[in-house]
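Example record

The entry below shows one chain as it appears in the dataset: sequence first, then structure tokens.
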Amino acid sequence: MAQRIIIAGGGLGGLSLALALKQALGAGHDVVLADPVLAQPGRADGRAYAISAAGRRMFAALGVWGAMQDGAQPITDMLVTDSKTRDVVRPGYLTFAYGGADGGADGGEPFAHMVWSRVINRVLTEACREAGVTLRPGSVQRVTADQDAATVSYADGGQQRAALVVAADGARSRLREGAAIGWVGWDYGQSGIVATISHERPHGGRALEHFLPAGPFAVLPLPDDAEGGHQSSIVWTEATSDAQTLLTLQPDDLLDELEIRFGLQLGALRFASAPRAYPLSFGIARRFIAPRLALLGDAAHVIHPIAGQGLNLGLKDAASLAQAVVEAARLGLDVGTEAALAPYQAARRFDTVAMGVVTDGLNRLFSNDVTPVRLARDLGLGLVDRMPGLKAMFIREASGNSTTQPRLLRGEAV
């Protein structure tokens, strides 16, 4: 039974799902990806993402990791510190040597790779086009579901019928609101300043997580630039009002503030991209499915970036939803029914709530300068550092190395 699936939103999660579905279902099913940004094939995004080992295995199973790998930087080591902003000495309370004595994600596999967003986007878009995904450069305005199918209304006035619509249209999802799916969330009053930093000395693949009173300050290793210059990405958390004030500083003054937090262990610093601030919040949909509709990625959940798992949660969504839809389709079932989508909701909502609780708790625990709390958390970090088995467990969880993961995240075909 041929069925159409429409994915509203051409972000990395939507692209990954479209490719997975088309590769598995073949020409008998029409997979449509709709997003206005598809009209801008050369669009640039200056951000980079930490792709977990499970995400890398998924991209390998989809046949696209090879095209991403040349520009990817493996994270081979991580240091966690906890200090005041202007402390000159920042003792390391917790270290991870991925692929080393602490145990890699899978037999020495790096815990994660840093990959430019523009590279992932380009590779996935090209793979979708080659696989036969219908790329429609326009937005979905409305979805009306009935017993047999959903009617999708586009911004350009066009309409299509589909067995299933996937809302991958971001945290302010119009389709989620149209389906009357509730949203529970709050604003952290924090913003993450994101930028690419050039530095004199090589980073050696090491990631740094400095827990400072205003929030975490992360330094993530990037591939060298075209001239061989060394680069890292930063995610610098501050109270939203302070972040906006920082971005109004003169470049040299802002660089001085950066050096206070970054340190000079990598030599002289400069901004290789203009810093931008993004508000940080928590949110989760009360349901991940509705009649003829499934939520994906930020449309279903938004978490604090303290653990760097936002994109990886979206990839888990894509892998799980692809598996549920493909299994239903191969049995000749209607892929848009509640029965077909229930395994997706069951698999993803609990895991997402759990990750949201963990990241929310970590942010509240570390984004303060209360002395007794600092002493307690530093003691806890030190104990974890001295327990190899516990450290290895954290690495396995963060890298997604679990036998209960969807097949794509284990590197297997759907």
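Notes for this example: The longest strand covers residues 183-199. The mean pLDDT is 87.
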